[in-house]
């Protein structure tokens, strides 16, 4: 190539910087797109699988297509790279605008349920494919500027490592800062700006180092091939492609499995996921740089095979660390309320567990490049082929592990399979070499490595049920609890335990979501009884989230209710909850009035033409990644639009594991849509615990005389008993939980962040308050603004006075 040595040699450090910036922008896009997918598909295993598969699929197609694009071969490689970066920025902005429009397409086409999920996934994948194809074309474009000698191929590994290092920066910048302080639009514009900067710099560099690309291509095609070494440059490169494909499959499969397990242990916040992804990328980047340097000095095929055999042991290390060692570290996550101290501890644990295998996965790519390289081969085609094999394997790994293997064989079974895949990848490239050299020692070593891999896989222990139950609190909660059940579904892992006081607890992904404790039962019943009693005659109900089924089951005892629709993402939950909480939830799952829809609640509400008299929502905590979509203004507006006239909606808001800023955001967002909303408290002996918000489209007036008369009807005997079982012997006791209304709380909520689909900042605010215990202080702040609700209740003077006395004076605790 004309200037093929001097150009890259002189400007190689600049290329490293440019490729690092390119990786930075790519990861910013990926994190933004994941939030967009949560809105378009839902926060499910499908959304994660679509993101990973589309991202990798685009990279695969781009890496294959660019070397075959003849016009690109006639241009300066840096000029092609610049145009690719400009196009990525433009597509990134278009994806931001276009993906929210997906809602209208699938809402009109299919509706809800699994067919709609798959259609949404397909449409979103098509939206993300153009920018990811361009990203995949960037490395082959740059690779045309180097020769395919071992020394120059190693530079491609260094570029890959620089790209990965930049991805770490993008991951941390988006996950810890940009999306926390701004919104998805501003974050996308930052990424697009980086693309523009890289494109401009590449064009400037191309002018400094001109090259006749067409002439260079002709020379490259007509130059006689150098004598090929029998193994390293032999014609049979299929074992190399098979090995790098298995490496990609195991890497993405492991990322899915280990992210799920570490999310249990560290708390499934947006920050936890950013830490995990950053450490994964750091390992890939360091390993890639190391592999690039090693590939110059050793037999690349032998090194590639050895790295895969070592990878089998490294995967076993991580499986043991995550499943057996780290959960037993004497770490109390509640000792400090500082999120930054917690992040440091979490970072250490993630590095300790993930770094060894990620280093080896990173080294695999440059070693595979060197193993597949042949003198005189066009570098773009070489890089494209190896990159495509790696990403194709990654696509299969992401989809198969997330959608099929985890729910069928569990995370422990997945870890065993990952170990065996790595070992097979090593043997795939080593066995042909052993057959050629007829080395008895090498054959014995490979056999021993395979036996060791099988031994390690067989000794991977099951995922601890207590980890599924208590997650980050395992060290302080597990000793007081007995495990009754644990299971892993497609979207969530669940467990059932019995506390030392006899209460049965229902856990989802490392946290208690419901229990038979008196305070939990009271809240779950209030979320059902309050809207059912306030409504003049509820006939249809939508319940968001099955949980233990207690809230949904509350509607079973109301004689007017004829239809109960429950929207639940995890199919494993209803049968397990019915088995352990059937008496408490009145076997709602098998009640003939009940229909369970397995879909994301947001999208069920969007796509169903049905309207309801009551919609009650008991979602997961707002600090859990993806849950903020069920606390956004747009979601509450969807709920409002799906209420019948006189309809009532309730929304749970936890005060524990939260702070005032987070609670204010949740309440202000709800009241922005339901300005007539009210607040109802579930305290524990006067101390704060949690609350729920109750809203109506029209101003709400509760006729106390009608309510009392209704409660004394013979057909409401089960309603009375249900309330009595949680401490409400009279209707005045239930109404005494009143804690305020929107207009009175307006001064306290002034300036609160409105959580919108375009920012979803609630999950970032909530994630910083995970270790705090401010529930009582927050509750007292709310009560300080409480005033007698003279506009809320009607009826005889005696009835109104009795309720007012039960509520107490404005601003005074009960």
Largest sheet descriptor: 8 strands, mixed
Oligomer: single chain
Counted by DSSP, the helix tally is: 30
Q: What's the pLDDT, averaged over the residues? A: 85
User: So what's the CATH class of the largest domain?
Assistant: Alpha Beta
Give the % helix: 55-70%
Radius of gyration: 29 Å
Structure notes:
By secondary structure, this protein is α/β, with parallel strands linked by helices. The protein folds into four domains: 220 residues, Growth Hormone, Chain: A, CATH 1.20.1250; 217 residues, Growth Hormone, Chain: A; 44 residues, no CATH class; 290 residues, Vaccinia Virus protein VP39 (Rossmann fold, 3-Layer(aba) Sandwich), CATH 3.40.50.150. 62% of the residues lie in helices and 10% in strands. The chain has 30 helices and 14 strands. The strands form three sheets. It has an eight-stranded mixed sheet, with helices on both faces. Strands 1-2-3-4 form a four-stranded antiparallel sheet. Strands 12-14 form a two-stranded parallel sheet. The longest helix has 59 residues. The N terminus and C terminus are likely disordered.
What are the main properties of this structure?
814 residues; eight-stranded mixed sheet; disordered C terminus; alpha/beta; Growth Hormone, Chain: A; 4 domains
Task: Give a brief description.
With about 800 residues, the protein is α/β, with parallel strands linked by helices.
Topology at a glance:
Blueprint: H1 6-40, H2 45-65, H3 70-73, H4 77-98, H5 102-109, H6 114-143, H7 150-181, H8 184-208, H9 213-222, H10 238-266, H11 270-294, H12 300-325, H13 339-372, H14 379-437, H15 440-458, H16 465-470, H17 474-477, E1 481-488, E2 493-499, E3 504-508, E4 511-515, H18 518-534, E5 540-544, H19 550-554, E6 563-568, H20 573-581, E7 594-598, H21 601-607, E8 612-617, H22 633-641, E9 643-654, H23 660-673, E10 678-684, E11 687-696, E12 702-703, H24 704-711, H25 717-724, H26 731-735, E13 738-741, H27 742-749, H28 762-767, H29 775-783, E14 793-794, H30 797-807
Parallel strand pairs: 5-6, 5-8, 6-7, 8-9, 12-14
Antiparallel strand pairs: 1-2, 2-3, 3-4, 9-11, 10-11, 10-13
Helix pairs in contact: 1-2, 1-4, 1-6, 1-7, 1-8, 2-6, 2-14, 4-6, 4-8, 5-6, 6-14, 7-11, 7-13, 10-11, 10-12, 10-13, 10-14, 11-13, 12-13, 12-14, 12-15, 13-14, 14-15, 22-23, 23-27
